[in-house]
Amino acid sequence: MATHSVYIGLGSNLAGPEEQVQLAFKALDALPKTAVIQCSQLYASKPQGPQDQPDFVNAVCLIETELEPLMLLDALQAIEQSQGRVKIRRWGERNIDLDILLFDEAVISSERLTVPHPQIAHRDFVLLPLAEISAGLLIPNLGCVDDLISQLDTTYVKPWQAT
Ligand code: ROI
Question: Is the CB of 7 under 6 A from ligand 1?
Fold first, then answer.
């Protein structure tokens, strides 16, 4: 079976966000035919979307998996459910959000899944951790991660520090 390199974005702003992200790293590594290869540090970020919600903890990890895109999407949604994710409102708070950012060099546009992630170029909280683990990474149709970062105001994202 072919092995795929996939970048996953993680975000949480409820129910102990840093624990939620650490739990999700472990859950990803426990998926069948899947291994977590590299994790970024955790970042604290101001919410994009409604401002009346807690700050987020964000991170990115690189996995290697034999799962195909929709199988992986199902697996990520199952992890979200197992960590108690419930929909509160659009662009609102959540226990854990797991997004497929990049899947090899694939460009996917289907009903359930768009890759590269459609908002990737606008999300400082995704691009900073992505560049940390893969400086110079090329994002299909969008270019180099570092060039995308240089076009954003990145002052809303900081390395997360335990308080
Ligand atoms: N904002 C931040 N800072 N981090 C996120 O992970 C995040 N996720 C989202 C919305 C609500 C759009 N905003 C976010 O889905």
Answer: no
Cβ of 48 less than 6 Å from ligand 1: yes
The single residue listed with the structure tokens 């990520």 is 76
State the pLDDT at residue 163.
Answer: 67
What is the per-residue pLDDT for 58?
Answer: 98
The CATH fold assigned to 4-159 is Alpha-Beta Plaits (3.30.70)
Sign for the pseudo-dihedral over CA of 130, 132, 134, 136: positive
- DSSP H/E element including 102: strand 97-103
Tens digit of each residue's pLDDT (9 = 90 or more) over 82-96: 999 887 888 999 999
How much is the pLDDT for 108? 98
Closest ligand 1 atom to Cα of 93? 11
- Could you give the CA distance from residue 64 to residue 27 in angstroms, rounded to a whole number? 14
Distances (CA, A) of 7 to 16, 67, 99, 153: 23, 13, 8, 23
Tell me which residue has tokens 């950012």: 101
Name which residue sits closest to atom 2 of ligand 1, judged by CA.
47
Which residues of the chain register pLDDT less than 50? none
| SS3 call for 117 | coil
Domain boundaries, the chain: 4-159
